[in-house]
Design goal:
Elements: H1 8-41, H2 45-53, H3 62-66, H4 77-80
Length: about 80
């Protein structure tokens, strides 16, 4: 019987594939929860779609604003205009 050997590249591919499946599952759950909330609270399809599309976003925190790498970023570009 031939001995099975797994290469490091196969392990890396398997890890990446597993991580992608986990991220996809988390995104699915976030979007599904947003759909269930939005179906009762929205007045139009566009509003519903906006809520579902933004389900994965998190609010900007104080530490995000104080971070050296992001401190000079314009956080609310709509307010600038």
């Amino acid at each position: 019987m031939e001995e099975w050997k797994i290469t490091p590249e196969e392990i890396i591919r398997l890890r990446d594939s597993c991580l992608k499946c986990i991220r996809d599952g988390e995104l699915y759950e976030l979007r599904n929860d947003a759909k269930l909330r939005a179906v009762y609270s929205t007045q139009s399809y566009e509003e519903f779609k906006d809520i579902v599309d933004a389900a994965h976003l998190r609010p900007v925190t104080r530490s995000d604003k104080n971070n050296v790498q992001t401190k000079s970023r314009l956080w609310n570009s709509a307010a600038r205009h």
